[in-house]
Design brief:
mainly beta; seven-stranded parallel sheet; four-stranded parallel sheet; globular
Length: 70
């Protein structure tokens, strides 16, 4: 599990075969196996994963086999 920490702004695309927790702000696309956007997390871009959980904010498309919006 990789974590993008809260209070930090990231820019760029992220892809890989693992899991990602986004607690900070990301401007870019995500393509991983499982992604969790935390309550304080924000993504501006496309999110694609087998399992997607969104507790924060996503401005872009979400694609997944299992998508949960909280």
């Amino acid at each position: 599990l990789s974590t993008l920490s809260s209070g930090v702004k990231y820019e760029g695309n992220i892809s890989g075969g693992g899991e990602l927790q986004v607690d900070g702000s990301l401007k870019g696309d995500i393509r991983v196996v499982r992604v969790v956007i935390g309550e304080g997390g924000a993504v501006e871009g496309a999110v694609a994963a087998d399992i997607v959980e969104v507790r924060g904010r996503v401005a872009g498309t979400i694609t997944g086999k299992s998508v949960k919006l909280f």
